[in-house]
Amino acid sequence: MQWIPEYQGDVERVERFNAVARITHWGHTVTFLLCLFTGLALFLGGVDWLAAIFGGYRGAGLVHRIAAVGMTLMLGFGVVFGFMGVIEWVKDIFRFGINDIKFLMVFPFEFLGFKVKIAPQTRFNGGEKMNSVVTPTMVILLVLSGYIMWFPALFPAGLVRFCYPVHDLAMIFSTVMVCMHGYLGSFHLGSGESFWGMWKGTVRTDWAKHHHAIWYEETYGDKAKSE
Amino acid sequence: MARLMANLYDVSKCTACRGCLVACKDSNQLPAVIEPFKGNYCTHEDTNGNTFTIIKFIEHEDPVDGVRWNFIKRQCMHCLDPECMKVCPKKAYTKSEWGATVQDPNKCIGCQYCSYACPFEIPKYRKHTDTITKCTLCIERVNEGLKPACARTCVAGALTFGYRDELLEQAEERVKFLRANGFPRATIYGKLEAGGTNMLYVLTDTPDKFDLPVDPKVSANTWVWQDWVQPYAGWLIPIALGASAISFVTNRVLANKNKDHAEGGHE
């Protein structure tokens, strides 16, 4: 059985993500998962075995805070060193249009593995655009509410109370997106190639043409080459 | 359930000697906490990790009665349905048979959820033990047939410890007397407030004149979080995981069906 689509080094490939984007991505992966599992120890309640992995509830709390600081630093790293990349990313999100709606409509079939005709997509398809909006927004909410709950004495009590449901909801929505994102970006046969885009930085040219036709044309197409 | 026991505090009898504060510190072996002078007689602005009970001095000006100087003892209210117990993720809070709300410092991890859930803002964080502390209604003493330290020491007779129903009768009598003798707004506090508490007050004026919440309520943020978000919203995560697992299987089944599609699922 095939897990992740195989890496094919012998075919023509194009760059999808630069080093800064990749470091920021995997930095967030590690810190997010650490925060998630240490946080779940409190959220779920009665999962002593989960807390025990981190050395008990106090240990989990410590790991949660260290990872949270790491996550904040990764946010800063991404914005500082990949500023233009972030701008390009946001610009692409704002290109949400009819093709993205068409994509989202056929996505459930694509998700299950049916062969569907997909309208040409920009650098990020309709689903990726959605993920690009929801996950970072939720992460920013997690960071803000997290620091307020960490130093409650510095903030009004009403704001601290408000942060508890916000932190939990942001965790839930971001985790749902991360589950889908993690699956689609690896084990899903159709889009799994994008794993190599984030791991090694490049994707197969034929995959890029098929999955992100507009992006490919604009970046590596004949027109872009002639310029 | 055993008969509920309560502490009745009669504002009209209190002389603000702060004997209860000292007895509490002594009985619970708590160190002194010295706060800077804030321009009034309060030794402490609020209860803290090492001070389970305080006497508040409240000056307030009434257009008819002139200046009133109100004293009030503050500590854990020992609610019949305590919110701190509900939000605690480690279930460190328990309700004793006779009604004391007790927190187990060995289970506490210092998350401070209870501090912000409590409508009276009573549980306080103690930095050097990284735990929450609060009044225990002297459960060890009461279990041995003694009174709580504060009630035992009160020289003015403002504090009475006993069965809650009997104390409520006594409080009603006292309020009747006070209303007839120059305190027309005298009232009982803790009978119904916050669903009833095991700390009862006889007040000579309305609760707001004593800095008590008139209608102590659990914040909407807290119950939305506890009653909706925690039990239900989290199910979205296993749904997402389940959908991925289904897709994992169907992807591979469909890929095997049409071999031309097998090569990574593209064209």
The main pleated sheet of chain A reads as: 2 strands, antiparallel
Question: Can you say what the CATH homologous superfamily of the largest domain in chain A is?
Answer: Transmembrane di-heme cytochromes, Chain C
By DSSP (H or I, 4+ residues per run), the number of helices of chain B equals 8
In total, the number of strands of chain A is 2
SS class of chain A: mainly alpha
Question: Can you give the mean pLDDT of chain B?
Answer: 92
Broad CATH class of the largest domain in chain A? Mainly Alpha
Any chance you could write out the topology, listing elements then pairs?
The complex is a heterodimer of chains A (227) and B (267).
Chain A: E1 13-15, H1 19-44, H2 48-53, H3 56-81, H4 83-93, H5 98-112, H6 126-150, H7 157-184, H8 194-199, E2 202-204, H9 205-211, H10 213-220, H11 222-226
Antiparallel strand pairs in A: 1-2
Helix pairs in contact in A: 1-3, 3-4, 4-6, 6-7, 9-10
Chain B: E1 5-10, H1 19-28, E2 54-62, E3 66-74, H2 83-87, E4 93-95, E5 101-103, H3 113-117, E6 124-126, E7 131-133, H4 139-143, H5 149-153, E8 159-163, H6 164-180, E9 187-189, E10 199-203, H7 220-229, H8 236-257
